[in-house]
Amino acid sequence: MTEVDKLSPGPRDGVNYPLHISYCGNCTMPIEYCEYYPEYEKCKTWLEKNLPSEFEKVKIGDDGADGAGEEEKKRQKRGGKGMIKAKKKEDGPKQVCVSRAPRGKKKSVTVVTGLSTFDIDLKVAAKFFGQKFACGSSVTGDDEIVIQGDVKDDLFDIIPEKWPEIDEDFIEDLGDQKR
Ligand SMILES: [Zn+2]
Fold first, then answer.
1. Which of 64, 110, 120, 138 could cysteine-pair with 115, CB 3.0–4.6 Å?
2. CATH T-level assignment (fold) for domain 96-176
3. Where is the SUI1 domain (predicted)?
4. Å from CA of 67 to ligand 1 middle
């Protein structure tokens, strides 16, 4: 690989810089320079024993010359994206849950959870509920809003109206919480 190859076309998405450099135990050079070392065959033997993954790249390099580095970067890029997708999957099902909780002797509050599974800003949502029902409404947890009043049944209409991506079917009625 020449200096020009290394400098262009610059940083890529999905590749962490600086790139990890492995050094050869035979010639002590970064392994990409091994091929310029007279004892390249010994280098390869060392690589095969000590850095099998790097040895695979060298072998690819022998076949495809300069294209190999390119291929490797693409592979890293794809791998990175794959990991992001896998992470998203772990978020679990999207669902909003509403329930009624007693407050004092006669009053109830309404608890809404799960809005953040739809990427909804909880502060915005709490403010919206407060205005809609003309009552107190605040974010009380990681993904929990408490509305001061018994408005649970209304939420089945109001939530899909405000956020069309949340179908009424995505709203689970947990009923009354007991304390
Ligand atoms: Zn070497």
1. 120
2. Translation Initiation Factor Eif1 (3.30.780)
3. 96-163
4. 20
